[in-house]
Amino acid sequence: MSLWSEPLRQPNQQTCGAAVLVVARMINDARYRERVDSVQAFRDETLAMHRRTTSSVDVLGRLQLPWPRALGTPPWAVANQMTGSSGVPGTVYRPAPVLPWRRTTALAEIRAATGNGHVVPLFVGNRWLPRHVVLVLDSDLTVYEPSGGRRRTVDAEAFHSGDLDLAGWSHPWFVVLPDSDSATSAA
């Protein structure tokens, strides 16, 4: 199975973050991509990833705040997993809020990171709270949207105005970016 030959859908309502992390690792690790060789393997790995990212120990063996699985995957766990195995090797990732008055800066940071070969997890939701995670794949704002399992392009103006339409969610909330002190170019 090539990466985009079939829809890679999240297995349930709580696993969008885990699906994003599996796809990120498939992009950054060819051996892992070979192991996740079917839709069933993707489903199984996404469920396992969700268990790992909501547990009390992260991928690097460090303690992390455990999180109720029913609430999805928190930004700090996504950053830990990106640092440990889903991101570009040797890079430390950090979550950052996307405040309404900083959306222009956040979009520039996303474009810079993707321009350097990184993929960027993006938390979106309604105006009150984050509810869904997608993966920004490139500086043209192509995203992997796990509820449909497909790629699509996001309009920059919709990002700025908080009028996205990503699985029904409109507002950007958090991004998980490579730390500028450790960022390695994936090129």
What would your notes on this structure say?
- By secondary structure, the chain is of the alpha+beta class.
- The protein has one domain: Alpha-Beta Complex (Cathepsin B, Chain A), CATH 3.90.70.
- 35% of the residues lie in helices and 18% in strands.
- A 6-stranded antiparallel sheet has the order 1-6-2-3-4-5, with helices on both faces.
- A hairpin with a 4-residue loop joins strand 2 (120-125) and strand 3.
- The two termini are 24 Å apart.
- The mean pLDDT is 92.
* Gyration radius from CA atoms, angstroms: 15 Å
* Helical content band: 25-40%
- CATH architecture annotation name: Alpha-Beta Complex
Number of strands: 6
Beta-strand proportion: 15-25%
Task: State the oligomer.
Answer: single chain
Tally of discrete structural domains: 1
Shape: globular
Weakly predicted, low-confidence segments: none
**Highest-level CATH class:** Alpha Beta
* Order of secondary-structure elements: HHHHEHEEEEHE
With helices defined by DSSP (H or I, 4 residues minimum), what is the helix count? Answer: 6
CATH topology group: Cathepsin B, Chain A
Find the structural class using helix and strand composition.
alpha+beta
- Spatially, the strands of the biggest sheet line up as 1-6-2-3-4-5
